[in-house]
Amino acid sequence: MIETSSPPVAPVFAVKKRRLRFLGLTVDDTIRAFFGGNALVAVIVLALITVFLFREGFGFFAQNRTNLEVYRRAGLEYVDFIRRQTDDHTALTRYLSDVRLRQLKLLTEQEKKSLDEANAALAPFDAFAEQFSATVDPLRALMAELTEQATALKTKFAVTEDRKVERHQLLAEGKTAEATAVKIDAVDFATELLPLRAALPAYKETSREFSRKLVTLLDATPVLPAAELLPRMERLKQLTRDYLAGFPAIEQAMEAWDYKEPVPAWQTFTSFLFGRQWLTASFWQDWYGILPLLIGSLLVSLVALAFAVPLGVGAAIYVNQIASVREQKLIKPCIEFISAFPSVVLGFFGIAVLGQALRAASQISWLSWVPGFPYSERLNILTAGCLLAVIAVPTIFTLAEDALNNVPRAFKEASYALGASRLQTILRIIVPASLSGIISAVLLGLGRVVGETMVVLLCAGNRIAIPDFTQGLSVVTEPVHTMTGIIAQEMGEVVRGSIHYRALFVVGLVLFVLSLLINFLAQKIVRRYRISIG
Fold first, then answer.
1. Could you tell me if residue 6 is left (phi over 0), alpha (psi between -120 and 50 degrees) or otherwise beta?
2. Residue 494 Cα to chain centre, angstroms
3. At what angle do helices 60-73 and 137-172 cross, to 10 degrees?
4. Which residues are paired to 461 by β-bridges?
5. What CA–CA distance (Å, rounded) separates 96 from 136?
6. Which of 494, 500, 496, 511 is nearest to 449 (CA)?
7. Which residue from 388, 355, 373 is spatially nearest to 473, judged by alpha carbons?
8. pLDDT 10s per residue in the chain (534 long)?
9. CA gap 457, 453 in Å, rounded
């Protein structure tokens, strides 16, 4: 009997490898090239974004230094010593107005007086407040006069610089005759600033008279109709004394001021990173300080996470560990469907419904214990944070639920075998085992919130100022502006290549770095947790 042997059957995988030989690639090589190519594309896109942001924002700090030099050389900095003095007095006047408003509320609500009776009782206080407010008028008049001189010098310098640019452009086009006709008047800052510096003796005399009037008024403070507010009046007296104690330092700064002193390079960075003003298109001086925008973004994000984390993680634990199959089929699609809502629609909802509803709720008497209630600003940190929480919940829920799914089933079975209850198993076994994934979900939710634009632009109030943190948790009822909001609001109005244009790109670069930092922290936390449980 002749035995016939059949050729060995090659594995299917090997056959596929041979079929791809004519391309010079195996299946493994193809898969590696595909996914490696995707990673390469991601790296290239990331590099292009980085290069683009740096290229467009690169010239900001040089332009900002020139901006600060003009501010000093034109005398604007000199006049701003007086301006800050008047602004501080305005803040004291606002504090006095707040005391008056509180007195009126106590008289009408607690003592049940009519509005006319309450105003009559507050007549001596109103006379005091009017005198207190009027004491600064001579100093403000002097400041207005010096302001005109400084702005005229700044305008003259700006016209000279524009004519230099015009002449350079004409020469570049070969129009020598037209370029020669452009008249350029050199600005002699030493001569132009003489009238400004000559006003120092008048300022000293006006400031001392201003101080004398304030001291006299403090000694004649009226008796308050509402005795409960006596501590606030004592606080006003102390604030005014501290304010007066700073006058000698202002005089010394004005005496030592030198327009020729160069602006150090580090100041161009610190004025941006720690500047408290974002002021553009100002007749006086443009300021580009990111601090109020950064704080606004962080506050809105923290409020959003305060609502989104308990809701998102709690819903994930319930759906994954407790809910029945029918409940899972109902809850999961509903939560994930929220991510389909356009953010601009949520913003309109915040303006028309949520902002008004929260403000109305703050007026309810039995909710007065809530920090910041009642409040009057309809669009604020709280309104924007609540809407951003709605946006962040689907992200946190989906990723946290996936993390819970990845916990080995043996962990749960072993816990039940040892006699643990369902709640004990969830809190002590399931959640700790999936904690790294939950933390990643929260941080990705934070990244989603920080980068949101339309909701904060429509609902955060868009006030560029650092909130008053002395109010504690009540700070969440104040309006703010954010980094994403300022870019969306102002990018369409700026001139390409201008300092304002480049400042917005530097804000975008800060957002980019912040996102990278969040991801880096997420990886560090996850790695440390894995090492600790290993």
1. beta
2. 20
3. 130
4. 480
5. 15
6. 511
7. 373
8. 444 444 554 454 444 444 445 455 666 766 676 666 666 777 888 888 888 888 888 899 999 999 999 999 999 999 999 999 999 999 999 999 999 998 888 888 888 888 888 889 899 999 999 999 999 999 999 999 999 999 999 999 988 888 888 888 888 888 888 878 878 888 888 899 999 999 999 999 999 999 999 999 988 888 887 777 888 889 999 999 999 999 999 999 999 999 999 999 999 999 999 999 999 988 899 999 999 999 999 999 999 999 999 999 999 999 999 999 899 999 999 998 888 888 899 999 999 999 999 999 998 888 888 888 888 889 999 999 999 999 999 999 998 998 898 888 898 889 989 888 888 999 999 998 888 889 888 988 998 899 899 999 999 999 999 998 888 889 999 999 999 999 999 998 898 889 999 999 999 999 988 888 887 777 776 666 555 455
9. 6
Determine the Cα–Cα distance for residues 490 and 483; give it in Å rounded to an integer.
11
Helix/strand/coil for 469: helix
Residues 296 and 460 sit within 8 Å (Cβ to Cβ): yes
Phi-psi bin for 281: left (phi > 0), alpha (psi -120 to 50), beta? left
Token pair recorded at residue 162 = 């524009």
Supply the pTM of this predicted model: 0.85
| H-state helical runs in 135-246 | 137-172, 176-181, 189-192, 194-198, 200-218, 230-245
DSSP string, 345-385: HHHHHIIIIIHHHHHHHHT-GGGTTSTT-S---SSSHHHHH
CA 68 – CA 65 distance, rounded (Å): 5
Token output for 233: 């009046």
Q: How far apart are CA 58 and CA 209, in angstroms?
A: 49
